[in-house]
# Entry
Amino acid sequence: MPASMAALSLAGSAVSAFGQYQQGQEQKSMYEYNAKLAEQEAATTRMMAKRETDVIRQNAVLNEYRQRKELAMNTGSQVGAYSASGVSVSTGSPLNVIADSIANQELEIQIGQWNAKNEISAVNYNAEIGASRSMNDAAMKRKYGENAATNAMFQAGSTLLTGATESGWKLGNEKSKAPTKKTIG
# Structure
């Protein structure tokens, strides 16, 4: 009977150790799943930033086109107004006014392009920071998963050793208490 009790105790330890091991593997799987979600978040952040920068570029091109059309219309209106009043636009103050208007409009176009480039840089910078954080989060989650699996394995091993030691101890104690046969000789 004591041997069967020791065997049952050892079997219970083995089942407990397997449960600990399985729990560690499940934790590792959970952390791996969360790491993949973080990586997807990083990819999505980069993709959304690319779309946003594409929109900013398109808007900058359209704004420049609109501003150049306005420049041409304004210059034509100025030349037409001077000509209608009989003033020559080839020299002097009228030419300076027109040149000044063109220079101011060109400056506005350049400012718009500069603003678009800065906005694109800011979007890309913020996206990379967000993506980097997500990738770091993914790496940490994987590390936590590995640690959980390793800790569970050590706990399972400890449970097995403790169970085996206790079973051996019980079996050994029962044998030492058993009556011994004496031979009279």
